[in-house]
Design goal:
single chain, alpha/beta, TIM Barrel, 2 domains, nine-stranded mixed β-sheet, 29% helix
Amino acid sequence: MSNTATTEEKLHRHPCFDEEAKGKYGRVHLPVAPNCNVQCNYCNRKFDCVNESRPGVSSAILAPSQATEYMRLISNKGVEIAVVGIAGPGDPFANVNETFETIKQVKTVFPDMLYCLSSNGIDVAQHIDKIVELGVSHVTITMNAIDPEIAAQIYSWIRYNKKIYRGIEAGKLIIERQTEAIKLLKQHNITVKINSIILPGINDHHIVEVAKYVASLGADLMNCIPVHPNKDTAFEDIEEPSKQMVHDIQQQISAYIKPMKHCARCRADAAGLLGKDIADTVTLLKEAANKPLFATENRPYVAVASHEGILVNQHLGEAKDFLIFANTKEGYIHVDTREAPKAGLGDIRWIQLAKLLSDCNTILVNGAGANPSSMLKSMGIKIIQMNGLIEAGLDAIYKGASLNGLTACKPFKCGEDCSGSGGGCG
């Protein structure tokens, strides 16, 4: 991208926000945000399906350092990339540490890119200062309703400030939070696009009201996306909107806000021109995902759950202590042993563990529940489930060695459905 372009010219190089840029400038979605704070009734986040082109799908999940390497690989493919976006496959603000660290790292190598985030809006407002500090210029908010009763039909649950909301309460909350997000973004001169998923029989008659509302808040344009019925969701049998329905809704909202008519319904790992992704994206993505997970200066260590200090052979919940390893010129050194927080504390246990291991970038375990894995990841600590020598796990983290054949053993004791309630393993 040319360094001589003015800021105003650069802003018009976003192919999702400016149709004239569609065939000239590409974008890269960096899939660093797997967790989500909302369960939409139309969404099924499959990370490994290469045959689907829709939001919520990615062939791999990258760490921030891997995302930077991926950008280097993509930048050599002959497409003029103008935009770096984070759009999931979950929500950027449910993975806020990874999101901001990714932008920070990528920006040191690619300072002239536009930086873009796509979110449900729940947690945007509380991070507005950081968004501005990092120079994010474009934000998309997915807003499907402004009537709490309609919103209640669309969302199964919403997690906000460690509390789960459902029904009308959830509907009211998400509208409130999205409204505040849009207002604050516009106060800071950030370009805002609204995505609304067209759900026949649910909100198709209501989207024009959404358009009126977001236009009054200063939103810049609106993308009305026909729902793609997904298996194993509450709306798996919903009727897909006809082209005529989409056209009619676009016409209706155009009285209030500029409609986006060239949406490619992009994946969370899309890369290249809109509607014409780079052919070997999946290969490049997986190549980057196999690169070493470089430790940061403030998180140089790796914690290990082990019975005897040779093998990774303890479940996260059963570990009474964690062995702390450092990578030095002399090789891997055991530098500390730290007693795990007591069982029976619920989610507080995982918060305490995150504080205990605040200088660790990864925990190697034999197994872990979904809840602690998600919570620890949101606090900057990656969980790797494996079965084998500690040294092999450390090689994967520090040297990029493959974990093929070593990844998580079969579930035991608490079984496949372990939620990681913090009660301890029996």
